[in-house]
């Protein structure tokens, strides 16, 4: 049985043109300290594989300020100066829209590999932003924006999405696992408000993209580019992204359907043992692929072995909220401890199985801007997936973690 619950959107109104931005309120910030009239809204930037978005965030209300969102396209194959100019121009547009209303400490959510403490890009062999490899992005952007480099705080885009999703969906949840699906596969695991990047319960560095299936990187199977390439290989026909591919599947194209189902089944099989081991109270999905959830969701849920997930259609808003929250904290990234999550309850991470049924419990209620989707699979399937990980060719699962 599938269940949908939708609540108020995370942005008060759609932004068209140079919309009016309301004044900032005098209240407390997201980290509990006084925001004050001089602090105003928190500026946040979200960099995706093909776009950049900047917006003002009201941490008191937990929303993107209506009319503040600025967006521009990015060519991931462009040279470094072109990319940095586009990101900086979008950020400056935000400043122009909110004169005197935003703080000077920016939160920037960017995909990895990236040295988030120093602001230096480490892209190599990931199919995007190759020109930024070893470029001090933080220093270059700070110069273009006229701020000190230490006023720019970077974090992983999936971590930003997870932090924002937790605020929007389940602020009282103990553990949350979040995944972004689009040009690649992003992931983040939260224990409370801490990002878990180490330990036996999460993939290396908390990154699902570092998992492999049958000896190949996960993103070579379960990403938009992988699915469109597979369809073209089988049919000789090029399709314009996932939207067209899933439209073909919805129209009855058997090869399109098989392509999507195979990719989502592989993704779910790779993630299932980690969910069984980590034992999240809430599982959240975002990214461009969620627009096609009626097509991609069923095979993914069946392979994951969970009863309920939350789908956020506006994952961008969650990432912006998470980036702003990160910027509002007092510690510098280099000073923040990355902690390992201890095992708890009836979860047995050592062999990737669960002695209970982790999928039996939590149904998120009051999904802000999202909807809750129930799956048919029971919690025990997650344990079976963990036990079967070696036989399915999934590498790097808890079953194989020393």
How would you describe this protein?
The chain is α/β, with parallel strands linked by helices. It has helices at 36-39, 80-97, 137-145, 157-169, 224-235, 241-250, 254-278, 293-304, 315-328, 380-392; strands at residues 42-47, 51-58, 63-64, 70-73, 106-110, 114-115, 120-121, 152-156, 175-181, 185-191, 194-198, 212-213, 216-217, 282-286, 308-311, 339-340, 347-348, 353-354, 371-374, 394-395. The strands form five sheets. A seven-stranded mixed sheet has the order 16-11-10-9-14-15-19, with helices on one face. Strands 1, 2, 3, 4, 5 and 8 form a six-stranded mixed sheet that branches. It has a three-stranded antiparallel sheet with strand order 13-12-20. The radius of gyration is 20 Å and the shape is globular. The two termini are 38 Å apart.
């Amino acid at each position: 049985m599938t269940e949908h619950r939708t609540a108020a959107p995370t942005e008060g109104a759609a932004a068209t043109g140079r919309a009016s931005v309301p004044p900032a309120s005098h209240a407390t910030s997201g980290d509990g300290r006084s925001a004050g009239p001089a602090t105003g809204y928190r500026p946040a930037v979200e960099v995706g594989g093909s776009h950049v978005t900047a917006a003002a965030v009201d941490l008191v209300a937990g929303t993107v300020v209506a009319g503040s969102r600025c967006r521009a396209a990015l060519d991931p194959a462009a040279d470094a100066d072109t990319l940095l100019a586009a990101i900086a121009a979008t950020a400056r547009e935000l400043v122009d829209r909110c004169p005197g209303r935003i703080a000077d400490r920016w939160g920037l959510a960017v995909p990895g590999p990236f040295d988030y403490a120093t602001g230096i890009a480490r892209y190599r062999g990931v199919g995007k932003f190759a020109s930024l490899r070893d470029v001090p992005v933080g220093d270059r952007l700070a110069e273009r924006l006229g701020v000190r480099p230490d006023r720019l705080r970077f974090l992983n885009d999936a971590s930003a999405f997870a932090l924002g999703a937790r605020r929007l969906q389940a602020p009282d949840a103990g553990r949350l696992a979040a995944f972004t699906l689009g040009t690649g596969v992003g992931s983040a695991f939260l224990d409370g408000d801490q990002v878990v990047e180490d330990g036996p319960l999460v993939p290396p560095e908390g990154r699902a993209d570092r998992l492999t299936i049958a000896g190949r990187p996960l993103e070579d199977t379960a990403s938009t580019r992988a699915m469109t390439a597979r369809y073209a290989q089988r049919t000789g026909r090029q399709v314009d992204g996932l939207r067209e591919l899933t439209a073909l599947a919805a129209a009855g194209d058997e090869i399109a359907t098989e392509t999507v189902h195979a990719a989502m089944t592989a993704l779910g099989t790779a993630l299932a043992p980690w969910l069984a081991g980590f034992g999240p109270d809430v599982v959240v999905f975002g990214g461009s692929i969620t627009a096609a959830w009626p097509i991609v969701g069923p095979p993914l849920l069946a392979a994951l072995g969970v009863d309920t997930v939350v789908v956020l259609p506006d994952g961008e808003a969650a990432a912006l909220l998470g980036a702003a929250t990160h910027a509002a904290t007092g510690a510098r990234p280099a000073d923040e401890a990355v902690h390992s999550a201890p095992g708890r309850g009836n979860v047995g991470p050592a062999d990737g199985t669960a002695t209970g049924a982790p999928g039996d419990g939590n149904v998120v209620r009051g999904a802000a801007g999202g909807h809750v989707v129930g799956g048919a699979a029971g919690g025990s399937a997650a344990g079976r997936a963990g036990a079967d990980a070696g036989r399915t060719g999934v590498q790097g699962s808890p079953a194989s973690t020393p």
